């Protein structure tokens, strides 16, 4: 991880050049349960300051910085609908260490010319292919994906029926512009492909490790390893398997950049596909969106102002000429 003694540019909180904080400064404990969760983060903290850590259930920006941390009221107004992390973490996987962005189980099991399991590393030393796990991809300085989030996460369980006609979102986050509890949050979206039962429409348990002849990392036989895993779990299995494309949402809360490197206004309030909030389509975003009604009202107002200016100028010109001719007579 690049969060071990990072530079201030990587993380202002953890850096010895910044606040030099440790994990436990934010993630306090209550009955052995740490505050803060990678699985269901608190979407909106409405309580604010908790510097004495009386409430051990929160690990939020607001618990240290309060609900209105900016001197500019316009920025504070944003905080009601935009998570602090959205502006203050412009990219993740900074500091020279990449993050895994893709994991494709469907390609696992390949062997090299020598008959041994195949393992390939990229130019940076990252494992790009593993006979045990499939293909991997990595990224550095990755721009987050932005989504509405209201604190509710719908996790897919092994027994849930899935729709294999589309990409499976393993932990769909809930929220929309019409939800007062939702804010726009940054996410790392992990791309995956994993085995499932196309008849029963469920994910499957894959037995990967062990000294028996059904473990995938020994025989590289999905038919055997999945059957063994499902039998052990006591779950129904049709005997058929396939692979489904998946997505997993990871909350981005670390690697807070210095304030001078926060996301600029025009990175969101801009037209075109390069805008950060291009996927947030259920709001009117000034500088990005166009409203036919507002355009007409604006052009109409501009037209009236132009007519008024021309009329005013014409009247002054006529009055001036009238006074001039009066003096001559």
Q: Features of this protein?
A:
329 residues, alpha+beta, nine-stranded mixed sheet, two-stranded antiparallel ribbon, 19% strand, elongated
Number of strands: 13
Mean pLDDT: 90
Percent range of helical residues: 10-25%
Q: How many strands, which pairing sense, and closed or not: the largest β-sheet?
A: 9 strands, mixed
Structural class: alpha+beta
Could you tell me the radius of gyration in angstroms?
29 Å
CA-CA gap between termini: 92 Å
- Poorly predicted runs are none
| Shape, per Cα inertia axes | elongated
Number of helices: 7
Topology order in helix (H) and strand (E) letters? HEEHHHEEEEEEEEEEHHEH
Give the SSE map.
Elements: H1 23-26, E1 29-30, E2 33-34, H2 62-65, H3 73-78, H4 84-88, E3 99-104, E4 119-121, E5 127-130, E6 134-139, E7 145-149, E8 153-155, E9 168-169, E10 171-173, E11 183-197, E12 202-203, H5 216-219, H6 222-233, E13 242-251, H7 292-328
Parallel strand pairs: 3-11, 9-13
Antiparallel strand pairs: 1-2, 3-6, 4-5, 5-6, 7-11, 8-10, 11-12, 11-13
Structure report:
The protein has 329 residues and is an alpha+beta fold. The protein has a domain at 290-329. It is built from seven helices and 13 strands. The protein has helices spanning 23-26, 62-65, 73-78, 84-88, 216-219, 222-233, 292-328; strands at residues 29-30, 33-34, 99-104, 119-121, 127-130, 134-139, 145-149, 153-155, 168-169, 171-173, 183-197, 202-203, 242-251. The strands form three sheets. Strands 3, 4, 5, 6, 7, 9, 11, 12 and 13 form a nine-stranded mixed β-sheet that branches. A two-stranded antiparallel sheet has the order 1-2. Strand 4 (119-121) and strand 5 (127-130) form a beta hairpin. 20% of the residues are buried. The model has no long low-confidence stretch (mean pLDDT 90).
């Amino acid at each position: 991880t690049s969060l071990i003694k990072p530079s201030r540019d990587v993380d202002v909180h953890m850096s010895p050049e910044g606040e030099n904080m440790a994990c436990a400064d934010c993630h306090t404990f209550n009955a052995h349960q740490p505050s803060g969760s990678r699985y269901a983060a608190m979407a909106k903290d409405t309580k604010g300051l908790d510097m004495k850590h009386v409430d051990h259930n929160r690990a939020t920006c607001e618990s240290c910085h309060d609900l209105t941390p900016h001197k500019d009221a316009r920025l504070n107004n944003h905080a009601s609908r935009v998570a602090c992390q959205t502006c203050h973490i412009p990219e993740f996987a900074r500091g020279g260490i990449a993050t895994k962005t893709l994991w494709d189980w469907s390609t696992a099991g390949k062997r090299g010319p020598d008959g041994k399991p195949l393992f390939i590393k990229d130019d940076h030393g990252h494992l790009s292919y593993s006979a045990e796990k499939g293909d991997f991809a990595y990224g550095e300085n990755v721009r987050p994906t932005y989504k509405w989030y209201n604190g509710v996460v719908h996790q897919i369980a092994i027994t849930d029926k899935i729709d294999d006609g589309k990409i499976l979102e393993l932990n769909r986050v809930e929220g929309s512009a019409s939800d007062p509890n939702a804010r726009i949050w940054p996410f790392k979206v992990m791309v995956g492909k994993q085995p499932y039962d196309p008849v029963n429409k469920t994910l499957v348990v894959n037995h990967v490790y062990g000294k028996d002849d059904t473990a995938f990392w020994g025989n590289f036989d999905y038919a055997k390893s999945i059957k063994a895993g499902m039998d052990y779990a006591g779950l129904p299995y049709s005997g058929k398997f396939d692979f489904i494309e998946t997505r997993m949402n990871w909350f981005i809360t670390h690697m807070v950049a210095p304030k001078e490197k926060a996301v600029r206004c025009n990175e969101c309030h801009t037209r075109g596909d390069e805008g950060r909030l291009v996927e947030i389509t259920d709001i009117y975003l000034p500088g990005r969106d166009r409203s036919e009604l507002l355009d007409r009202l604006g052009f109409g107002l501009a037209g009236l102002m132009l007519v008024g200016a021309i009329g005013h100028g014409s009247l002054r010109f006529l009055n001036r000429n009238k006074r001039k001719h009066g003096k001559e007579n």
